[in-house]
Design brief:
This protein has about 70 residues and is mostly helical. It is about 35% helix and about 0% strand. The relative contact order is 0.17.
């Protein structure tokens, strides 16, 4: 979930955390165990290194652990 919305779209979300396009409540699902919240605008999510790192750690937990040990 991105939380850095565009200033001119804030009024549409009425105080709800949002990324400028999607509100946090729109990303909720019963099967999601632990949602990830990052201060990123919707437009920049696909190219974000932070998002890439979270996906890498969640999809390949062993690779994330190996990277932490190597650092």
């Amino acid at each position: 979930v991105g939380t850095r919305g565009f200033p001119y779209t804030r009024r549409y979300f009425r105080g709800e955390a949002n990324d400028g396009v999607v509100g946090a409540s729109e990303t909720a699902a019963d099967w999601l165990v632990e949602p990830v919240v990052l201060p990123i605008m919707h437009t920049w999510m696909p190219g974000s290194g932070r998002v890439t790192e979270v996906v890498r750690q969640r999809a390949l937990p062993q690779a994330g652990a190996a990277r932490v040990r190597a650092a």
